[in-house]
Amino acid sequence: MQKSIVIVSIAVSLLIVMTVSVSAQDEEAGPLIPAVASVIIPGAGQLLNGEVNKAILHFALDIANWTTWALLGSIPTPIPIGYLSAVAALGLRAYSAYDAYTVAKETGFSIGLSKDGIALSYHYQI
User: Fold this and answer.
1) Where are the domains positioned within the chain?
2) Which of 75, 103, 104, 107 is deepest in the core (most CB within 10 A)?
3) Distances (CA, A) of 75 to 9, 71, 79
4) Is the distance from CB of 17 to CB of 40 less than 8 angstroms?
5) How many helices and strands in the chain, by DSSP H and E?
């Protein structure tokens, strides 16, 4: 059962990535990049936004969650640890994506191609 939870989580993440079409010219699509990155790996969107401390925290929480699942997942409990771990993983990914999207929207995050390669830009608006 726990393997199926992991497989479903991976499938949902891949489905989200495949269905989100990001255009470098679309101003509304720019903040989606950090959000999708945080769905796949919590903290990746925060790292793209330049929030290193927050990125480390989100990533460490994800590692702690998976470590707990690996160590305690086989212990019989009234509510299986695998279910709690899956709910915690989805909750962390949802929060991490929301946080990354909000910060990216506030800072004017955008990504695109330039003649020198990939260009990241931030537009701070006051």
Assistant:
1) 2-121
2) 104
3) 22, 9, 10
4) yes
5) 5, 2
